[in-house]
Amino acid sequence: MTTTHEEPPVTATTPVPGERAGEPVIEMRDISITFGSVRALDRVSLRLLPGEVHALMGENGAGKSTLIKALTGVYSIDSGTIVVAGEEHAFATPAAAQAAGISTVYQEVNLVPNLTVAENMLLGREPRRLGGINVRGMNRRARETLDRLGLDIDPSSTLGDHPIAVQQLVAIARAVDVEARVLILDEPTSSLDADEVAKLFEVMRRLREDGVAIVFVSHFLDQIYEIADRMTILRNGRLVEERMVADTTQLELVQLMIGRELEVLDRLDHEHTRTSTDGPPVLKAIGLSRKGSLEATDLSLYDGEVVGVAGLLGSGRTELARLLFGADTADHGSLEIRSSRRRLRSPRHAIDRKIAFSSEDRKAEGVIGDLTVADNMMLALQASRGWLRPIPQAVRNRLVGEYIEALDIRPADPQALMRNLSGGNQQKVLLARWLITEPEVLILDEPTRGIDIGAKAQIQAKVAELARRGMSVVFISAELEEVLRLSDRVVVMRDRRKIAERPNDDVSVSDILEIIAGHGGTPSARTEEESSRD
Amino acid sequence: MTDTLTPPEAGRRTASPVRGPRLVARLLASPLLWPVMALVVLLVVNVVATPSFLDVRLQDGHLYGNVVDIARNSAPVLLVALGMTLVIATRGIDLSVGAIAAIAGAVACTRIVGAGDEGAAATAIMACTVALAICVLLGLWNGFLVSVVGIQPIIATLVLMVAGRGLAMLVTDGQITTVNNDTFSNLASGFVLGLPLAFLVAVAMVAVTGVLTRRTALGMLIEAVGINPEASRLAGVRSRTIIWTVYVFGAVCAGLAGVIIAANTNSVNANSLGLWIELDAILAVVIGGTALTGGRFSLLGTVVGALFITTLARTIPNIGIPSEANYLFKAMVVVAVCLIQSPRARAVLRVRRTAPVARKGNPA
Amino acid sequence: MSAVTAPSSSVWDQVRSYSPPARFLPVIVTFALFLGMFGAGGLRYDGFTDPQVFLSLLLDNSFLIVLAVGMTFVILAGGIDLSVGSVVALSTMIAAKTLALGWSPYLSIVTVLVVATLLGTLMGLLIHYFEIQPFIATLAGLFLARGLTYLISVESIPITDQTFSELAFRTITLPGGYYTTWTVVIAVATVAVAAYVLARTRFGRTVYAVGGNEASALLMGLRVAVVKVGVYAISGFCAGLGGLLFALYTLSGYSLHAVGMELDAIAAVVIGGTLLTGGRGYVLGSLVGVLVLGTIQTFISFDGGLSSWWTRIAIGVLLLVFVVVQRVMTRRQP
Asked: Domain of A459?
């Protein structure tokens, strides 16, 4: 990897001279998509050349999957054009996109586990004889395709008997068998180990040589640098830049993905005054790990401090939070709560030990949409009391009223249905749900994602205030400014493990960025300054 | 009863407080509107066919008339549907209630026949208590399969649905057991304060359930589990206990219904007692506005649903159609209610995200 | 016995040739159970192992075999069909009524099959296009078919038609002096056709795909709609055919025929090793499932001391065992 990141940024709208010859297979121009009041894509462009691996980069909510779905006909576009091999197209269905040679392989294997490998590859266009499926012919054709990709898989074996990695490769084989000109791989590597990724890359290289344009989405920067030729970076539904991978350092890439607005780093009145690391930690994780989601991690939390967790999507930040709360159970390692060793088998155990956790997936794991704001707020406290001891109406009204006012929840109607609230207000209700249980440890996973600026500031202020009053907070966010603004200590995660922990006295956003970009992974992925600093 | 149940139900459903003509607005927004309207339409049809349909007369201190009969006949379905409402609210379903009703009826009758003093009130009470205790066990069994073993509710309760009638016949030794006990038969045909006892029992159960679910936190927790199981788990809700509780409750309700049905004929036929009552109960729940996908439930809606089904059964012969055609009408009701509740059918009337896809396909 | 396994064993071999044997485990277990029960019967009761007992087993359950075939399609695709018992009753009634009106027996048969298939298709359309749960949509079908039956006649109507009674009574003599009837041939032929369709046609494989993962099947560009509606049409057709066989068996049409037979059909399919959540199972398994149910009944009729209700209890217990084992098996998978 070179470190020549002094070059001026190159945007997609200006043609890049001296690049690979050939017309783009696909050109998406100024694509916009709006969901309700949310602008999911705002004039985003993407060009794919034959025989390249094109990485699509961005954090959660950047618009990667929306862009892919716009291309493959799952979503319709509000404005903009899609040009396929010189002709303008808009695919109404995934099948139409497939017919035009655009195939997609998703993160979750979208095949049928109960059928054979050959059937999964060829179903819908299988060879037939006398009206019935020609099983032998089908297996032969599947074998040919697999051979072409250098894969040694028995076509007549049942797909579900293979590990996920092999299933993923079969999915690619299916995509390739359709004579794909464009292959979209949406996070295919998230559950693969190193050998399996190597196998996948081998297949990708073969396809690239055959002239297929591959769109590759991955959260692992090292993989991008190993396989991708060019990349398009998105942030908050907008195009940031299109770049050659070789001309971009990891540090630059992370900066482009996360974005930094240096001028607005006004600190909150939170002064990082926490002093006592002397006392016993309120929560201590020792070598906490879980296969496939987190490698052995230590973490100590003290009263009245905010520990910020920084890291990209897939870095293990969410996985750590879930293990601390007992939402998932750890394979190894242990937890100490106020110096006594505890095993958290379920969220119940954690709640009983005064730990609270607000999930990043607000909709699936937080909001009870058809219940009222009041019910949503009282749920955790009520659950811990059991159904036989209802919270007295007066207490309930008082608590709900207090929190609606304190967190400025709108509409200020306890009887409003949760699903009718905006994301920011829902998030505040969920915060209230946990504050009502008076926890000692509050774990917030991306509490400000996808909500408006006003609500964001209010939640940040609340977190600072809670810490001042002695609560211990774990604050996870993809936005580094936010993490630094609030935290007393910053934990940096990458590749499913903790790679750094720094007190937040003179840490800057660029320090963190450098740690994320440079640390860990394969040596080739390290930037030079990072290596020299070690 | 209305006083204890209406305010929380109605108040919680109407999201935005309307200050103006509040009563009208509230009524129009009420989810009970459609079921009640349907019931009213049915009654109107009856009155048109038989002007004296709604007449109620007092004789020997008892009320008589079609409406009273409907109330009395609705008791079993109402009870089963009551239990079913809570089960469905947790995203479950209980197919075994008919079989449980048969077992309860069989146990009660054989206990009475086998007792020393067949006619005594104490015998009847003991017999019913034993029957309901066995229902608790059956409910525990269903709840165990669903919440601990983790089998889909429809499959888990299918086991008892298949085996249950065999068990009931085992209890009665395959005979149609006839009992002679006044206390027992009063359960179905007796009157208290001029009203049928069976109906009062059912209404009392509804009231108790209303208090249990709306005055404690049970209702809210059931709904939370039904709407979003994962979010509920992360909020610390003991969903296993909740689910177990509703299956036990459902079984007890079914048992009570079985005992009433047996008391109505003073006999038990394990083969036919409560046959298809699970389907009627599910229908009552669906008519009452509780979605089969779980979540928000309405006890009052279920009451209306059960009354609707019973009234329908009464209406058909009343307007001169053979009563066997009842099934046809039920089929139509099922389809109509499902279409009304189907998001797809509603989407036809609404602008949705998928709609623009089709429209935009043309200009491009 | 050889008469049954001979035609189907070739299908067995074909299916086996491209599927690992592990997938047959549930069917093999059921088959072993069946053999074990039959063997136990032979040890206990005289004459139980007489091949004619087995042939009677097929004869007495031919309609259930056909129903189970249709139900297998539906369950493999991830659905359920509660209406089949009522459709059987409706079919017997339509046949009896039309014959009583003097229709040609062939026209009568065609009418039954068309009505039953239409009913199934209708339910399939409701399920697929309006996203109504299969359980509730087929519940409507149950009520509708039963209601139509009552509408035609409340009383039982006897079937006296020459063709029908000849078809019902005419036996096929097999070597060794054993005999069987045309109804058995029809049932076995249905199984064979269904096995071929499921194993070797695009439609059949798509049934498995839809049951395995409907969303994936859609993304793979398979014709999910055709399959989802199609399996209910097939189930309706099978219920009509089963109804005709039932009419031949009882030579009457009656609105109280086949009450609860859908449960027997579902139980047979599950005991035959088909996963109730869809995607796994074989129509041959369902055949063995029906035979197991039939054997329980034969057992009880041979044993004077056992009462008939033990059939239901035994079926329930078997169902429980299979459902729990299925649950454990699916839990172990990734």
From this structure: 262-354+439-534
